[in-house]
Amino acid sequence: MSRKRTAALVGNPNAGKSALFNALTGARQKIANYPGVTVERKAGRLILPSGEPVELIDLPGSYSFDAASPDEEVTRKVVHGEFEGEALPDVIVLVIDAANLEQHLVFAQEVLELGRPTVVALNMIDLAERDGLVLDPAALSEALGVPVIPTVAVRRKGLEDLSAAIAEAETHADEEAHKRWHITLPERRLGAKHMARGAILSQSARHTIENGVDRVLLNPWIGPVLMFGLLFVIFQAVFAWATPFADALEGGVGAISGLVIDTMPGGFFRDFLTEGVLAGVGAVVVFLPQIVILFFFILIMEATGYMARAAFLMDRLMAGVGLSGKSFIPLLSSFACAIPGIMATRSIPDAKDRLTTILVAPLMTCSARLPVYAVIIAAVIPQTTVGPGIGLQGLVLFALYIAGIVGAMVVALVLRNSVAKGAASGFIMEMPRYQLPRIKDLAIGLWQRAWVFLRRAGTIIFMVTIALWLMLSFPKAEPGESQMDASFAGMVADGIHPILAPIGFNREMSLALVPAMAAREVAVSALATTYAVDADDEDLAAEGVTDRIAALWSLPTALAFLAWFVFAPQCISTIAVARRETNGWKWPAFMVGYLFALAYVFAGLTFWIATAAGL
Amino acid sequence: MTLDGYEHDKTARIVAVNWVALAEDEGKRLKALGVDEGAEVAVIHRGIFGTRDPLAVRIGRMTIALRRSHALAIEVEPV
């Protein structure tokens, strides 16, 4: 039996590599990190026409082997066979944007110098045609000396030909590499120009769709208005669209809980299932729809090419606090989750700039806060409208997001003038062409995000919830005593509560904050478990956590709790990833310290002001 | 004349780039994107507020964003 064959997708950023990867491998993907570095390794299985499988790796997009970022370094090492633990790919699939030949052929020549079996995918040929380009793949193939296959990933066009070409190239995998003569960058650029000219049969006027659309979207006045309008719509949608799905999930969890109560004899194990597992994990899982909707919009912004325009529009504003538009993309990703956000800072070339972005990323309202915000808002903010289509609840949620953004901007400004002082950073980036998002790519992306969330709910949150339930259930209360008072958890809460009482937190909240160090959304499951265990009759236990909060918390207390979560760095994973990305404990420790200080001060201010205002 | 002061939507040829004025990795990145002597470029969009920063520049069939500070280091001539 021969060893496992591998092929690697290589190409410039924005060549449509990921779409091609999805089209070639379908949902059979494995995402992991390269050992030692935090660059994502995406691998999938490609079935050749012979039925034989090949492992296909999607390498990070690069402009050249003269690596300027850790991502590009991975690509360079893998295709040179210098990456430890990663076999030299048998075949290189060089992905080239058909509408951007002159640019992409520069790196292509560098790749071809390796002399490895290579197949060129002349990708997004449909977009090139849309731009009025008529290409001659045969001429390009002759110039490059390797097969050139026109492809349109979204319409699965050319995929069979590409697999066949990969299979053919693979038969040469064991031959000695025929290294080509090394040429300099200006020579490559000249070569690219000649080859592009030879391959382009005709082209109409250069007036592309981008120019017209950008005239509106990048307009100094209309552009920002449209962008903020879009962001506002997204956050309204997260709340409004998700409601029916969340209600259905909640009903489902409630039904299962009822079924368990009806069919199982009462006792320790039944309580464990209903009060512990179902109340805790169920309280978090109901937020899946909101998280999926938020990621849906972020993925669409990325896939259409609008994200780069948003970065362009934000650059001036970011420059005001010492950052650049490049920080906008990691920060926007942090709205979904700070972990991919912090990892995305690797595309920021300036070290101080990058450090600042990492330190403020946890201030962006991640999806884990959504369960906390949603429960509290639903409990204490009335479901009224304050204008056509604008709900008060959505407005409060929007205000919380804005609070996080403003907080991040102020902190960034302070950091750039103190601990992260340095020269002003630059902003250089490619603006990809506009594209229609591909349903399949969206679906795969959404599924991957949803799966990460569910896995967290099934592991971290599950374990923490069980531990908390055990602490809440033992020792058993004497008759007439509340279970919460008697339990171990109650003792812990008594220890913390004096510190948090001045800012308006009650004992249940103080207790919920402890397991929430693992992940913010655990605060919700912790409250749910606490109230479920503490409920002295079945009717009360059946009430959701939202109803209990509405009944038991004052408005200033609830608002203070919201303000706390705008700042509090309650996520072990974020702290861990910050440690990995900054190579030490110094900066994560600083991050945790300043965020807790801000959380305490602002929760306190919120409580005192709200109380003084008589709310 | 520098790219910063050049007329909107008009194609210009880069005659020189003051690499010394740019940070090393920024120069590297600009070069990788094709900004170098002889390249033909055009400023097609500019940002908000007084400085009209950043700039969207068309180079070949691609659009790149860069700051005014970079554009000031790029010497151009009419085509």
Describe this structure in words.
The complex is a heterodimer of chains A (about 625) and B (about 80). Chain A is α/β, with parallel strands linked by helices. In chain A, about 60% of the residues lie in helices and about 10% in strands. Chain A contains 29 helices and 12 strands. In chain A, the strands form 3 sheets. Chain A has a 7-stranded mixed β-sheet with strand order 2-3-4-1-5-6-8, with helices on both faces. Chain B has about 80 residues and is of the alpha+beta class. Chain B has one domain (about 5-75): Roll (SH3 type barrels), CATH 2.30.30. Helices cover about 15% and strands about 35% of the residues of chain B. Chain B has 2 helices and 5 strands, in the order βαβββαβ. Chain B has a 5-stranded antiparallel β-sheet. Chain B is globular, with a radius of gyration of 11 Å. Chain B starts with 11 loop residues before the first strand and ends with a strand. Chains A and B meet through helix 3, helix 7, helix 8, helix 13 and strand 12 of A and helix 1, strand 2 and strand 4 of B. Strand 12 of chain A pairs antiparallel with strand 4 (about 60-65) of chain B.
CATH homologous superfamily annotation of chain B: Ferrous iron transport protein A (FeoA)
Proportion of residues in β-strands of chain B: 35-45%
CATH architecture name of chain B: Roll
In helices, the fraction of residues of chain A equals 55-70%
Q: Number of helix segments of chain B?
A: 2
CATH topology (level 3) name of chain B:
SH3 type barrels
Placed side by side, the strands forming the largest sheet of chain A appear as: 2-3-4-1-5-6-8
Would you report the number of β strands of chain A?
12
Biggest sheet strand order of chain B reads: 4-3-2-1-5
Order of helices and strands of chain B: EHEEEHE
How many angstroms separate the termini of chain B?
Answer: 13 Å
Major beta sheet summary of chain A = 7 strands, mixed
InterPro entries (chain B): Fe-transptr_FeoA-like, FeoA, FeoA_core_dom, Transcriptional_repressor_C
Protein name (chain B): Ferrous iron transport protein A
Keywords (chain B): Iron
Protein name (chain A): Ferrous iron transport protein B
